[in-house]
Amino acid sequence: MSTALQDLATLDRVIHEPARLAIMTVLYAAEEADFLYLQRECGLTQGNLSSHLTRLEDTGYVKIEKAFKGKYPLTICRLTRSGRAALESYARKMRSAAALFR
Amino acid sequence: MPPSPSPVMDAERRAWSYWFIDGLPNLVAGVLCLLISSVYALASAGPRHVRSPLVITLVAVAFGIYGVVFFRLRQTLEWLKSRITYPRTGYTTPPYFVNWNAAPIELTMLNLSNVAEKEAFNMRRVREDAHRRGWFFVAIIAAAGMSSLLTGNPWICAATGIVAGLGICFAARRDQRISWVVVYGLPFAGAYMYIFPSRHIAGAASFLAGVGFLLALDGVMTLIRYLRSNPAARA
């Protein structure tokens, strides 16, 4: 089996799920975002986003904190160092996989 | 703004433009310009009036508010946004906190084509251009004020308004944060200096007031549009 195919077989399944990939992409680009912003950007329902964030937090890819901006309570999410590394590794593998179709 | 071929670049661009979605940055910048022009206007009322305690108090108050807003600009904006924007459409990192020089290099790793890589570098260049254009705009306004103070020629402000309008028009081609109100209004802000001739400090003050009014108007229009499309959530 070629290296590209092996890479495909070892893709991170936590990130590979479309909704979680969308969440991680937004957080990668925006550094940090709150629950409402993520919900709007990813087009997910409240329950759906909540369950995906819990999964990402359990894996250690996302850190969730409660904070206040003035009197407004925020649920701020940000990628952890391992989350960024995992997304970059996922992108590298997908990149080499894309070469298979050229 | 054309959609980006890369989702990451698109998300980054949307996060960047999110800071300006409610018009508050332009509104606050406009109010700043109006405050400083009111200080100039009060100071130019004449030596007799400048000595009056009421005028001195008004100048001090206007200057104090200007100082607070200018030196606490981000905090002022965040305070406003925490009451208007975040409860409606959420929060993401303001552009001040993001290391924009580092991001595009990392982002190229997530792209699957050379087109997206090129765009990453283009975006970096656009940001640097926008930064340079911002300083250029500030320099033009400062030059107009100083020229008006030193020469007392209203034509200089008129010409500066046209140049600034063209400059902003050029900047707005890529960056749509400034609306047509400012782009087309600036030449008029300069031109009314000729219609209502005022010299020295009063000239600079009226030009700055024109710029401030345009920015504030742009901010208010954007804010109204934003509030209409994003009504407050009911408890």
Short description:
With 102 residues, chain A is α+β, with helices and mostly antiparallel strands.
How does this structure look, described?
The complex is a heterodimer of chains A (102) and B (235). Chain A has helices at residues 3-9, 13-16, 18-30, 35-42, 46-59, 81-98; strands at residues 32-34, 62-69, 72-79. By secondary structure, chain A is an alpha+beta fold. Chain A has a single domain, classed as Winged helix-like DNA-binding domain superfamily/Winged helix DNA-binding domain (Arc Repressor Mutant, subunit A, Orthogonal Bundle), CATH 1.10.10.10. Chain A is elongated. With 235 residues, chain B is an all-alpha fold. Chain B has one domain. In chain B, 76% of the residues lie in helices and 0% in strands. Chain B has helices at 7-18, 24-43, 47-50, 53-71, 73-84, 86-89, 103-107, 114-151, 154-172, 180-195, 200-229. The longest helix of chain B is centred in the middle third of the chain and has 38 residues, at 114-151. The chains are: A alpha+beta (102), B mainly alpha (235).
Terminal Cα separation of chain B, in Å? 35 Å
Residues in helix, % of chain A: 55-70%
Beta content of chain A comes to 15-25%
Strand order of the largest sheet of chain A: 1-3-2
- Helix and strand composition category of chain A: alpha+beta
The amount of helix of chain B comes to over 70%
Count of helical stretches of chain B: 11
Structurally, the number of domains of chain A stands at: 1
Rg from alpha-carbon coordinates of chain B: 20 Å
CATH superfamily of chain A: Winged helix-like DNA-binding domain superfamily/Winged helix DNA-binding domain
Topology of chain A as a string of helices (H) and strands (E): HHHEHHEEH
Sheet with the most strands of chain A? 3 strands, antiparallel
Please, what is the average pLDDT of chain A? Answer: 88
Order of helices and strands of chain B: HHHHHHHHHHH
Number of strands of chain B: 0
N- to C-terminal separation of chain A? 18 Å
Major protein interface = A-B, 30 and 29 residues
The first-level CATH class of chain A is given as Mainly Alpha
> What share of the residues of chain B does DSSP label as strand, in percent?
under 5%
